[in-house]
Amino acid sequence: MNGTSPAYDVVVLGAGPTGENLADRTRAAGLTTVIVENELLGGECSFWACEPSKALLRPVLARADARRVPGLRRAVEGPLDVPAVFEHRDAMAAHWQDADQEEWLDSVSVDLVRGHGRLNGPRQVVVDTPDGERVELTARHAVGVCTGTVTAFPDLPELAATRPWTNRQATAARHVPDRLVVVGGGVVAVEMATAFRALGSRVTMLVRGGLLGRMEPFAGEMVTDALREAGVDVRFGRSVAGVEREDGGEGPARVTTDDGDTVVADEILFATGRAPHTGDIGLETVGLTPGDWLPVDDSYRVPEITEGWLYAVGDVNHRALMTHQGKYQARIAGAVIGARAKGEPLDDGRWGRHAPTADSAAVPQVVFTEPEVATVGPTAREAERAGLKVDVVDYDIGKIAGAVQYAEGYRGRARVIVDSERRNVVGATFVGPGVQELLYSATVAVTSEVPVDRLWHAVPAFPTISEVWLRILETYRDSDGSAD
């Protein structure tokens, strides 16, 4: 394809999970589709985020569970086998090879152009390929920007010279640093602190606010307690004022905080947020600002482009920065593009085929710390700010027979948010070992808008942790439907 100027119905920039799903759905709608990627097909999630990070965390969580099971505790007393953990991580990241992803694209008849793609005016994309050629692409119906995000670093002088870690260096690490500083309190920060502490690092966390600040407060509190019990030095109210490497830039990193403290570490991981990967994709050629997020309407169109051909899907639109949500958006956007190309009306009512309702009403998320955190929908505070009248129902998961069976000394907590007027579940948060498996049932309850009276007839098996649903409903009933 080098040197040619082909036209397609749809051109997709970025072949991470979002871009791949968008291309798959537009192709399934009968539209010719090409995808452009400058790195590995599968993107951040497959190679530097979701897959390798969970591979690092799985043995950590499995060992933590085993230590709470009578008869297994002595079998897991020793340290983790670090080379084996890294070998498993490498396998889950496909050894940073993407041949299987290319085969998949071929199997669904999506063309691929490797290289740096950027907009070059309305409906035009140019790609500079690795062998120095230039490919010019034209989109008849849509260009989908699925370029995701990159690490957002704080504005610190000479930071790059200190070789800071991002999630990429952490998840692809070839060694376990003796001392690791983690800057930030979000999901990447707590997960990598969990993993590297279990692998043998002495971990210090510098957190400006609290941990997991966008979730229910008790989630961050319980994760904080567990990290500290594991030996992590968690310091709140701290920002980094400066970083430098000793010994002419080759030695340990010396981190100075805003209160004058100093922490010395072998590596420093910045997990301080994400920025849109839009700085070098030609936004200026269509009147947009490079480096900005791309806000969209509820069909994922960028409204500033009046002709309606530009879509922004996944993290880049700043709606819900999670892989599974980007894939959801891609499924919706692909169906929208297909319908518009055929002149069909959109089914865009609440929960309609072309509606992105879950972006605001039912975003699920799991934090793979010890304990795990699983959430869907708004927190109690968010629901109230949105004008909902809600009842908040809390329950100690450790009282459930299934939890007692699961782990000796089980500690966990559940919170369900009920719309007190419509009497349906709008949000839920679970914290504790194994709670990730509670999340889909909660997501179904939220998206189905099932009345709590109907949920009484969804009988949980005994003895499982899912019996917490029954206890929550009993608590709500016994409070006359007005639990605080």
Automatic annotation (TrEMBL):
<feature type="domain" description="FAD/NAD(P)-binding">
    <location>
        <begin position="8"/>
        <end position="325"/>
    </location>
</feature>
<feature type="domain" description="Pyridine nucleotide-disulphide oxidoreductase dimerisation">
    <location>
        <begin position="363"/>
        <end position="469"/>
    </location>
</feature>
<dbReference type="Pfam" id="PF07992">
    <property type="entry name" value="Pyr_redox_2"/>
</dbReference>
<dbReference type="InterPro" id="IPR036188">
    <property type="entry name" value="FAD/NAD-bd_sf"/>
</dbReference>
<keyword id="KW-0285">Flavoprotein</keyword>
<keyword id="KW-0274">FAD</keyword>
<protein>
    <submittedName>
        <fullName>NAD(P)/FAD-dependent oxidoreductase</fullName>
    </submittedName>
</protein>
<dbReference type="InterPro" id="IPR023753">
    <property type="entry name" value="FAD/NAD-binding_dom"/>
</dbReference>
<dbReference type="InterPro" id="IPR016156">
    <property type="entry name" value="FAD/NAD-linked_Rdtase_dimer_sf"/>
</dbReference>
<comment type="similarity">
    <text>Belongs to the class-I pyridine nucleotide-disulfide oxidoreductase family.</text>
</comment>
<dbReference type="Pfam" id="PF02852">
    <property type="entry name" value="Pyr_redox_dim"/>
</dbReference>
<dbReference type="InterPro" id="IPR004099">
    <property type="entry name" value="Pyr_nucl-diS_OxRdtase_dimer"/>
</dbReference>
<dbReference type="InterPro" id="IPR001100">
    <property type="entry name" value="Pyr_nuc-diS_OxRdtase"/>
</dbReference>
